[in-house]
Amino acid sequence: MTTEDRSKPHETATRLAHGGRRPREQHGFVNPPVYHGSTVTFPDVDTMLSGRQRYVYGRRGNPTSDGLESLVAELEGAAGAVLAPSGLAAVSVALLSCLTSGDHLLMTDTVYQPTRHFCDKVLTRFGIETTYYDPTVGAGIAALFRPETKAVFTEAPGSQTFEMQDIPAIAGVAAAHGATVLMDNTWATPLFFRPLDHGVDLSIQAGTKYFVGHSDVMLGTVAASPRAWPALKAMHGDLGQCIGPDDAFLALRGMRTLEVRLARHQASALAVADWLAGRPEVARVLHPARPDDPGHAIWKRDFSGSSGLFGFITRPAPLGAVKAMLDGLELFGLGYSWGGFESLAIVADPRKYRTATTWTEPGHLIRLNIGLEDPRDLIADLADGLDRFTAFAEPG
């Protein structure tokens, strides 16, 4: 914590309310002030040359960004955390902190698509090779290691299709090979899963989603184990990454309510998912917290909760039926982000970019972000949408 007394451990809700702020250093104001500025002055030449002043230049941090970094590091149980201007920027700085020319990266095949693009279009320019692997491989990932394998990237559940990964098993194999383990943990946040407690070295968040929670800030965070922290901190500085003070302030404000928001997202998403599972238009629901999900056992073993993002597969039908369903929704926006207060929907096709696995579902994949609306209203909206789906698929 960053308040006055660290002597006693506190529960998560208390840490969210008190972490990252020092009222006694800010004239008693409970929130860190927003520091706008690039230039920082020094009292004398000796101080300037010593490098020991806490703040030296705006890009290197200020009390506002320090508050957010401190809170993230505490929630993650990390040696330190850095802030980036987006989730993808966080992924990029994390990967570049542990890879160099000639290295080999193992990347889950279900990863967030822009991360795949970064590997295929940017890392290749630096002579770094990526091998995509089946997310369900578990300890079998050992067969994919090479002498030059330096990092393993995980994401659980997987983007769009929600496969669970056995993170402790993968991390154990990576540790035996001296490789760095990275995890995109945006879905669960450190409230429902703390990657560093399970052998991960770099825990990544698209803070744009649940940390901010209000769809009004772009943010990425990376929290590091003691082993990975020096390289991450150095690479973050070398790349000149930073975020604006207003974004840091809004993220801190959002995180004060993270636990209560996630509880609502979780309950509402499960209610909607359970309802969808009973609809004849739905072939399968993709939600690891449901007992019939293939990844449920791993989720139940390692995770303490689930968030508001999940998917479902329709029964086979023309694409026009999906358009009729989604275009007419009143409470669900059509948008690629998630984690905000508003509900969203997208249609996705994993066959376009998977390389190590094959997506064979004959129906259409729909991903839903369940926001903070009343789930009864969301269910009614989806019911009307599924009726339109059926009317289009079975005219007359």
UniProtKB/TrEMBL annotation:
Cofactor(s) required, per the database record: pyridoxal 5'-phosphate
Residues recorded with modification N6-(pyridoxal phosphate)lysine: K209
Composition-biased stretches, type Basic and acidic residues, lie in 1-13
Q: Name the enzyme's class.
A: lyase
| InterPro entries recorded | Cys/Met-Metab_PyrdxlP-dep_enz, Cys_b_lyase_bac, Cys_met_metab_PP, PyrdxlP-dep_Trfase, PyrdxlP-dep_Trfase_major, PyrdxlP-dep_Trfase_small
* Annotated PANTHER family: CYSTATHIONINE BETA-LYASE-RELATED
Q: What protein am I looking at?
A: Cystathionine beta-lyase
